[in-house]
Amino acid sequence: MAKAEGFEGLVLRRALLSRLLILTLILLWRLLFRPYDTSASLNPSCLSAAGGRSLSAGPILWPRIGAAIEASVVWDGVYFVRIAECGYEYEQTYAFFPLLPLCISLLSRSVFAPLVPMIGSRAVLALSGYVLNNVAFLFAAVYFYRLSVLILKDPAAAFRASILFCFNPASVFYSSIYTESLYALFSLGGLYYLFSGATTVAMLLLALSGSARSNGVLNAGYFCFQAMQHAYDAIIQKKRPILAGHAVIGGVARSICIFVPFLAFQAYGYSNICLGGFSYELRPWCKARIPNLYGFLQNHYWGVGFLRYFQVKQLPNFLLASPILSLAICSIIHYASVLLQVFRSLDAHDHNSFAALLSLLGTNEISDAVGVSKNNLSSKTFQEHTVRRRKQERKNKSTESFQHLMATDHALLQSTQGYPSILVFPFILHLAFLTFTALFVMHVQVNLWLLILLHMITGERNLARLVQIDLLSALESHA
After folding, report:
1. Whole-angstrom Cα distance, residue 305 to residue 440?
2. Are 207 and 258 contacting, i.e. CB atoms less than 8 angstroms apart?
3. Phi and psi dihedrals of 112, rounded to 5?
4. Would you say the C-alpha torsion 438, 439, 444, 447 has a positive or negative sign?
């Protein structure tokens, strides 16, 4: 425990160092090179008088500093700052989810409000976004480490993965005005609490991730996975079908909660555009039987769709994404092959052994077993470990199944070197879905950071076999 806490402090310091390094490189790049995107200079007044702000009506004390901060806002950051300042004015702005603009607006009106007379309101909005995302990244790195320790039971491996997360190739997105930092914070934090047994906290955090990015709805799959495990355990192990029904209903209810922010935002867009009327002509998606605002925006404005990115001119972008895509695909194949070997190693006629293994899907017990046998813990440590495990019984863990698995499959767990934790399974499914989406549906080059993130959570040993380094992987797609 002390070792893990020591690593956690190191992770926080390395995360801070990585942000300082990235921000320094951004400043140097801006000084030495002209930005490719010059849309930051386009800043018309808000369409609605209520949307604009008059806090900086007087003269600005440091206009050059304010202008420099405003000029640093490029690409998607232009949309987020504009939404924070003026709200959702145009149809295409609804492709950008509201959590980041809302947080930016709140910070600029409270914590950073005294800076408005000095650098101007729009510069304060941008500064709020930069501070928010960099602070969120620090907490995300800590949760990344905690989640990795929980899944892998190896603080050293989790530390290496966290360092790679801090210095990953897509790191610039986490220090810019993008949604990556907030999404990573709420997703990683939610998953950590989910696997720790704090289901309600996990549900709230994962729902917030869905208000930051559209792909946050995929996190509902973890509750479905947990519900399937609990239902299987109730039917096969405990012989209580009623408990299985409760587990399924609970899983469905929590999954719906994850979808609520996404659906509420789509309803908000429908109300403003289709009912409020942005133009005299009703938009095509408004006439659909089931209006799909987000799907229409991605298809119409960004050209997102199945195989639509498969063009000769996009070949450089596929080459850019090929390393991480290859690693993701190889990790998925490797994990599937190892898991298949494990199932084949079980005695097909020993139903209890096989059932005990499956009943532990979604819990920490099999991972605990691997960690104990691998590290040859002392008897005192093992006793502490057992006490901690028993304290988790109220969090839907099956101690009887765990003991049976240890008795029947202990040799298997010891003999399989680098045995991947069964807890990795839902992450592998997540990784597989996002890899497919990145390759065939989305803009492949902007999905790199997602593949990097999930890949770090899912398999340090798997990737070590591929590239001869210790790496933990994780993923999530850039809309």
Report:
1. 8
2. yes
3. -100, 10
4. positive
Task: Please check whether residue 367 is in contact with residue 151, taking contact to mean a CB–CB distance below 8 angstroms.
Answer: yes
3-state helix, strand, coil in the chain (%, to 5): 75, 0, 25
Structural domain containing residue 337: 312-479
pLDDT in tens, 55-70: 555 688 999 999 999 9
Residue 342 lies in a domain: yes
158 alpha-carbon distance from chain centroid: 17
Residue 470 forms part of a structural domain: yes
Query: Which tokens go with 373?
Result: 């046998």
> If you ran DSSP here, which 8-state letter would residue 16 be given?
H
What is the spatial distance between Cα 475 and Cα 39, in angstroms, rounded to a whole number? 30
The pTM (predicted TM-score) of the whole model is 0.80
Q: Total domain count for the chain?
A: 1
Residue 133 domain flag? no
How far apart are alpha carbons 373 and 330 in whole angstroms? 27
Q: In this structure, how many other beta carbons lie within 10 angstroms of the beta carbon of residue 348?
A: 9
One-letter amino acid of 366: I
**Cβ neighbours of residue 272 closer than 8 Å, sequence gap 6 or more:** 88, 278
Tokens linked to 98? 């509201």
Is residue 373 classed exposed, middle or buried when 0-12, 13-18 and 19+ CB atoms within 10 A define those classes? middle
Summarize pLDDT for 133-150 with one digit per residue, the tens: 999 999 999 999 999 998
**Going by C-beta distance under 8 Å and a sequence separation of 6 or more, which residues neighbour residue 49?**
none
Query: 50 Cβ partners below 8 Å, 6+ apart?
Result: none
In a domain, 456, yes or no: yes
Write the CB contacts of 418 (distance below 8 Å, at least 6 apart in sequence). 338, 461, 462, 465
For residues 445 and 163, is the Cβ–Cβ distance under 8 A? no
